[in-house]
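From the methods appendix. Each design record in this collection lists the tokenized structure first, followed by the designed amino acid sequence. Records were kept in a plain field format so they could be parsed without special tools. The example shown here is representative of the layout used throughout.

RECORD:
FOLD TOKENS (164 positions):
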């Protein structure tokens, strides 16, 4: 990114966040040459892409990360707020380190790294589901229903939802 003040092409990213309902990434940058700060907004076409193992791409989504973490932390003594914070930290880390593309594997590994420091059980859950699906984006989609089914099986049947 070229500095708007001195035009040198040597900047660093201070922090990044997704804004406008996921339609843009705001990056606060600083120029390593003149030391001034500036902010960039990257629109949809510049939005970080996740490359899956099958080589297809999809938009990066913090919501998916958060959903996967929440499923892994199910019934653990972890506040919803802490999970949100964790997802935000993972997002910030990814946005600061990957400008255009991140692989689903890298996202999965990061989630595991962060979870390991928070809760061992959640980490193992996440890791086992992640490894068996071997795709970080898919496992997020798969993890939630699996844990929900387990939760349901433990509860008494109170509805007639299976009648159809
Ligand atoms: Zn500059």
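DESIGN:
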């Amino acid at each position: 990114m070229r500095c708007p003040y001195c035009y040198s092409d040597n900047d660093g990213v201070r922090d990044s966040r997704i804004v406008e309902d996921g339609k843009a990434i705001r990056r606060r940058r600083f120029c390593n040459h003149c030391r001034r700060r500036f902010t960039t907004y990257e629109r949809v076409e510049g939005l970080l892409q996740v490359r899956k193992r099958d080589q297809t791409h999809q938009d990066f989504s913090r919501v998916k990360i958060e959903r996967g973490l929440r499923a892994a932390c199910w019934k653990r003594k972890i506040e919803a707020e802490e999970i949100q914070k964790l997802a935000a930290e993972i997002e910030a880390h990814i946005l600061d380190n990957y400008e255009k593309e991140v692989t689903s594997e890298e996202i999965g590994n990061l989630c595991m790294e962060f979870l390991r420091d928070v809760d061992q059980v959640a980490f193992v859950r996440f890791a086992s589901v992640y490894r068996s699906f071997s795709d970080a984006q898919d496992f997020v989609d798969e993890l939630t229903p699996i844990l929900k089914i387990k939760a349901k099986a433990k509860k008494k049947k109170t509805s007639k939802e299976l009648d159809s």
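APPENDIX NOTE: The radius of gyration is 19 Å.
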